[in-house]
Amino acid sequence: MLYIKTKLKDGRTVKSGIKENNTFARCSECGTEVPVQLGELFAAENADPLYTDIVCPECTKKRFAKQNITMEDMVLLATALCRLGFCRQLLSLYTDFGIEAIQELEPEEYRNFADALLCAVTEDGVI
Predict the structure, then answer these.
(1) How far apart are the first and last CA of the chain?
(2) What are phi and psi for residue 29, nearest 5 degrees?
(3) Which helix or strand (DSSP H or E) is residue 6 part of?
(4) DSSP string, 39-76
């Protein structure tokens, strides 16, 4: 079992097992505490899991609001959220938008779909 060991000011040492449900990070933009899915973090390509910036759903929304969303952005967002366990929310939006695949979205629908997906994820539980 992996664990962390922290030395307290009074000299005592506290050990805590690292588990899927007790691992958190601070959003690299706003500092909000965000639960971390360890399996996804270690499976991510092109990333050093120990130095990965974690961004909360609210800051992700703000990032998307500032940019022109492309199909590549939509696919990356949908894939990442599905891998984090939010496939049900994604598929529900497919029904709402009358599509069977994300590639069927028209460019003018990207922002609405991304906003709806991020809202669904935020409502069902912070990433």
Answers:
(1) 24
(2) -105, -40
(3) strand 3-7
(4) HHHHH-TT--GGGPPP--HHHHHHHHHHS---HHHHHH
Cβ-based neighbours of 92, under 8 Å, separated by 6 or more: 120
The span from the CA of 43 to the CA of 12, in Å, is: 35
7-48: pLDDT as tens digits = 999 999 999 888 877 888 899 899 999 888 777 777 766 667
From CA 68, how far away is CA 46, in angstroms rounded? 24
122 contacts 58 by C-beta, under 8 angstroms: yes
* Model confidence, pTM: 0.52
Question: Tokens at residue 59, please?
Answer: 């800051």
pLDDT of residue 44: 67
**Residue found under tokens 């390509």:** 45
